[in-house]
Amino acid sequence: MATQHSRSAARLMMAPAVILLLGWMLVPLTMTLFFSFKRYLPLRGDSLERGLDWVGFENYARFLSSSSFWPSVQATLVIVGGVLVVTVVLGVLLALLLDQPFWGQGIVRILVIAPFFVMPTVSALVWKNMFMDPVNGILAHLWRFFGAEPVSWLSDASLQSIILIVSWQWLPFATLILLTAVQSLDSEQLEAAEMDGAPAFARFGFIILPHLARAITIVILIQTIFLLSIFAEIFVTTGGSFGTRTLTYLIFQRVVDSQNIGLGSAGGVYAIILANIIAIFLMRIVGKNLDR
Amino acid sequence: MARATTTRRKVITTAVAWAIGLLIFFPIYWTILTSFKTEAQAINDPPLFFFFDWTLENYAIVQERSDYMRFLWNSVVLAGGSTLLGILVAVPAAWSMAFVPSKRTKDILLWMLSTKMLPAVGVLYPISLIFVQFNLLDTRIGLVVVLMLINLPIIVWMLYTYFKEIPVEILEAARMDGASLREEILYILTPMAVPGIASTILLNFILAWNEAFWTLNLTAAKAGPLTAFIASYSSPEGLFFAKLSAASTMAIAPILVLGWFSQKQLVRGLTFGAVK
Amino acid sequence: MGRIVLDQVKKRFGDVTVIPELDLEIEDGEFVVFVGPSGCGKSTLLRLIAGLEDVTDGKIVIDGTDATEVPPARRGLAMVFQSYALYPHMSVRKNIAFPLRMARLAPAEQKRRVEQAAEVLNLTDYLDRRPGQLSGGQRQRVAIGRAIVREPSAFLFDEPLSNLDAALRVGMRLEISELHKRLKTTMIYVTHDQVEAMTMADKIVVLQAGVIEQVGSPLELYRRPRNTFVAGFIGSPKMNLICGPEAAKHDATTIGIRPEHIDISETDGAWKGTIGVSEHLGSDTFFHVQCDGLAEPLTVRAPGERALSYGADVHLTPRREHMHRFDAQGLRID
């Protein structure tokens, strides 16, 4: 509800943001699509000036049939799935715990949130060296203290190690959002359930968990989007070896290391499609929320 | 869900919560602690938790070796510049969507959000190519623009949710009182939205500060921020835990402090207002 | 000066027609109240006059000039909003001075006018407080202060008292009426409360579904409602509307009789009935009486205390000279 005057002013004021984002989305996307249908190996003398050969869907087919494709999908799914399970389960428990009254609530909350602010390169490096180093890492000290043989974490348990590092970074996010959701639960509802004779477990299952369902969905979707594109954590720790080459990292290697732009672009298109499928689900939820 | 509890229960909860809190915080604590040790003490077995000779020499070495101040300055410029630029573009857009909504407003908002979900790696080469074409590689201005663009959807969304809470009537009152559009935004909306704008700035500063895909791929020595600074420590060279810790501490300390201030707004910003 | 003419004004939001077509003249210095049930388009009408909404069709003429395309700020009108719409980050002084500041008045003149308004509205002691530190009534006065400093040609009030508690509402009603007597400026006042309309207005405009049902002074509306809608809307308690054979006896489809125009007696009368619920107000007593042969119970107002118990048999007699008759379309028959 407004006047014609304010509506045209609104359109004008929205223009810069819309145009910028439209450009940011369309220009590179078009280029990626373009390259994905071309043979483009700069190291072998291909260049834009001399024109690129049209190869149709060959890049797409080759990306799918390459021996590293399915392992990279698997690695991606294991890492994303693993982190989601760890962060959501621990996040719910932690949120319920932090919601209880105890001394020093504010300080503990700050301690729990802190990892989120650590830049990915730092957390990856600190974990890699000071914790997971098979000789001098804290975990190696701990293993030796109990008389066990230290583990070469990043080579022998590479996926688990990456999951641990990334979960540590994202647990605060899940906890914080779930805690906010827990706090919005009406205590009268719980008291009513208690009066109705529901024991603690039933209260959790029938009231708290359904109440958290929306927040959990949001946590899962947002984290998935970020986790699908985790880069620094792998770049700094294993460099994609020991079975930790995710789809993102595979594309990165195709483009940057082997300089096969066409192949990498085809991979990029796959990644964009994958991200969009998840994005649609997230948009539905956020969009519904807009109407309220 | 605050409920009356017994003291005994509170004692147990306190113990458990503190134990978990300290466990989660431990890597950060350990990093900060190690940065004050000598290299030999850093790898001592058993680990030294407090009683060692505190030293600042690691910080001196790190500064000398990698010119910390330059990276720090780059981080400040990139995070600050991209955030402020983003705010300038986003405030008018958020005003439009919050106060003059049309049928398409919701679609535009969701579309903006969807650009945030574009996997960066999918457009890495085109962006690099554009950077090369315009001589933007390893420049601060190029990266400021990129970081602004990747965070713009979040900035617009956060401002939108904050603006939505300001009653339209107040802006209409200003209009009746003779304020022009510029005056309405400058004298009424902006002052009223200061808390919201501040937390938007804070969160996006943090996100830009920690961004580690574009900053690693589009910079080298000149414009590299702290993410690149720390990545240069990824190949081990003899005893280097203490120096690594010092460098890490220097990279995360500024943002840890800012982050603690912004924890309330974090939820809202990162869920696009879906959880408050 | 503040003469406002609405000429064939129409308003649609998308496919929804809020105001089909409406003509209205508001004379300079009049206190006009738009009244109607919620959703009747009265607030939209006010916002059209203010310029906060565009008219879909038609003209709005203020003081002889076509103001249809003029932005709100330059129509010379001031508005008091339902939520007061005070600027929370400014002191009372700055709130009241804001329109003057926007008009680029000299600071000394601003100060003089703000202090004068504050004096009139008893706000002098609160000038340096923030709106958040004021009570509901004080906020209301600040909103009025912000409106009067501009010396507008007309004031627009959008349900200004609906956020106040009952006692305060009566007080503010008087204050606004007094303000009108003193300033003699045109005031347009929107409310859903017919008591406010009756007590304050020079002229009441009764609206329903964007259509003007009747325009007139409060007593005109009370004495000669043009149709059954106005008859039922104006007056408290509501007029009794009777259909069926009883109405046919008076050559009408519906007859209306106000509760205060029915005499109640224990011995004899026109209609026989039994007492239902009685409401004792001290000054009056309201009886709900179920009469033989009438579908709906009638409300009867008896002055002072009357002790009639539940279920008692009574007789009612309507005063013929106060009876209203309506035809099949609900229009008044004279």
TrEMBL record, chain A:
Q: Which Pfam families match?
A: BPD_transp_1 (PF00528)
Classify the protein's membrane topology as the record does: Multi-pass membrane protein
Supply one GO CC term from the record: plasma membrane
Q: Please state where this protein is localized.
A: Cell membrane
Give the transmembrane region(s): 12-37, 75-98, 110-127, 162-182, 212-236, 267-286
Gene Ontology biological process: transmembrane transport
User: Where does this protein chiefly localize?
Assistant: membrane
Which controlled-vocabulary keywords does the entry list? Cell membrane, Membrane, Transmembrane, Transmembrane helix, Transport
* ABC transmembrane type-1 domain sequence ranges: 73-282
- The superkingdom of the source organism is Bacteria
Q: Which family does the similarity line name?
A: Belongs to the binding-protein-dependent transport system permease family.
What name does the UniProt record give this protein? Answer: Sugar ABC transporter permease
Organism per entry:
Oceaniradius stylonematis
TrEMBL record, chain B:
Cite the SUPFAM superfamilies for this sequence.
Answer: MetI-like
**Localisation per UniProt entry:** Cell membrane
Residue ranges spanning the membrane: these are 12-32, 71-96, 108-134, 140-163, 184-209, 240-261
Under Gene3D superfamilies, the record lists: MetI-like
| One record GO biological process | transmembrane transport
Entries under InterPro entries matching the protein: BP-dep_ABC_trans_perm, MetI-like, MetI-like_sf
In this protein, which residues make up the domain named ABC transmembrane type-1? 72-262
Pfam short name (any one): BPD_transp_1
Query: How does this protein sit in the membrane?
Result: Multi-pass membrane protein
Primary location group: membrane
| Keyword tags | Cell membrane, Membrane, Transmembrane, Transmembrane helix, Transport
Q: Name one GO cellular component term.
A: plasma membrane
Q: Which family does it belong to?
A: Belongs to the binding-protein-dependent transport system permease family.
What name has this protein been given in UniProt?
Answer: Carbohydrate ABC transporter permease
From TrEMBL, chain C:
The membrane topology of this protein is: Peripheral membrane protein
User: Principal localization?
Assistant: membrane
GO-annotated molecular function:
ABC-type maltose transporter activity; ATP binding; ATP hydrolysis activity
Listed A to Z, the keywords are: ATP-binding, Nucleotide-binding, Transport
Task: Respond yes or no to whether keyword Transport is given for this record.
Answer: yes
Q: Which InterPro entries match?
A: AAA+_ATPase (IPR003593), ABC_transporter-like_ATP-bd (IPR003439), ABC_transporter-like_CS (IPR017871), ABC_transpr_MalK-like (IPR015855), ABC_transpr_MalK/UgpC-like (IPR047641), Mo/tungstate-bd_C_term_dom (IPR008995), NA-bd_OB-fold (IPR012340), P-loop_NTPase (IPR027417)
Which CDD domains does the record cross-reference, listed alphabetically?
ABC_MalK_N
Please report the stretch or stretches of sequence annotated as the ABC transporter domain.
Answer: 4-234
Instruction: Please give an example of a GO cellular component term from this record.
Output: ATP-binding cassette (ABC) transporter complex, substrate-binding subunit-containing
Which subcellular locations apply to this protein? Cell inner membrane
Q: Which SMART domains match?
A: AAA
Enumerate the NCBIfam families for this protein. PRK11650.1 (NF008653)
Give the family from UniProt: Belongs to the ABC transporter superfamily.
Q: What is this protein called?
A: ABC transporter ATP-binding protein
Protein's organism: Oceaniradius stylonematis
The uppermost taxa in this organism's lineage are: Bacteria, Pseudomonadati, Pseudomonadota, Alphaproteobacteria, Hyphomicrobiales
